[in-house]
Amino acid sequence: MVTPTWIGDTAMAAPFFSCLRRAHPGARLMAAAGPWTCALLRSFPWVDRVLPLDAGKWSSFISLKRLLKGETVDYAWILPNSFRAALMAKWIGAKRRIGYGTDSRGWLLSDKVAPPRDVSHLVDRYLYLLEAQGHETRAQVDDFCITPEAQQFAQNLLNSYCMMNNAPSVGIHPGAFFGESKTWPLEHFKKLIDRLVDSEAAQVFILGGPDEIELAGKLNAMSGGRAVNLAGKDTLETLPALLSRLDVFISGDTGPLHVAALAGTSTIALFGPTDYRQTAPRGPWNRIIHKSLDCSPCFARTCSLGHHDCMKRITPEEVASEVVELLNEKLRITKHGN
Prior knowledge:
Elements: H1 7-12, H2 14-23, E1 30-33, H3 38-42, E2 49-52, H4 59-68, E3 75-77, H5 83-91, E4 96-100, E5 111-113, H6 122-131, H7 148-159, E6 169-173, H8 186-200, E7 203-206, H9 213-222, E8 228-229, H10 239-244, E9 248-252, H11 255-262, E10 266-271, H12 276-279, E11 286-290, H13 309-312, H14 316-336
Parallel strand pairs: 1-2, 3-4, 4-5, 6-7, 6-9, 7-8, 9-10, 10-11
């Protein structure tokens, strides 16, 4: 498989990997991936081997051929819609090359799939590639498993910060690699932390990658240390285990949001410049908050109008209300079952 570039897109491809494994239980499934997503793909139980590509635009081609070492590739499933992704499948000599016939790349594909007009969500668009080849699909993943090593790492990390027994655990992710337009104001996050700690006796964890340590530290200082700052203390390979131990996870449309949903954690997605109909986690344990403004979704990395209202108008009170509702529903199920 030629896999997506971004963490969130890769997490949303999990149903595709799961269904492909069911369709070909004896096949050797290899995932060619860039440096951003290799660690996450290594946590996918359906993948036999991850092929880590060089970061360079064209050096990645050379690295893939080197990793394959003349190995025959019978099928190449091409998840990204880019010309480059299809060219890569052609370059390695894959016998069958399956992908959408977009970006003037149809001639590179042996099995050109016409993009479905009535399918908008990215999960469904990945699955449609399988359906077009006659495979059965389902959007829900029930065979994602986290390794014992990753679970132990997550438990040790939380224990080192004296995780309070029986306290609701809420994770927040203030960053967004896409750009500042996806981020919720830090002042709103600070008010949310205060509300959850004071009213729900929750333990709040601030999460973020290595590039978000400074941002997370700023939020932690603003909150007076009322949250536990875990930014930069985990890895992408252990992130699913860490997120699976939270009761609720809150962020904008980010990679960790989709990893949390994959790990089975309840999520609250704050959508502004991107379209929730295309990428929001689905299911009753995943909530979406967005404002219907004339300017959104704009898909811009920064607000061209300068007001950022699509995110600013989402209030801490709204988010806290959704958190409380999810926590109460979890408590009800714990006490009384389904």
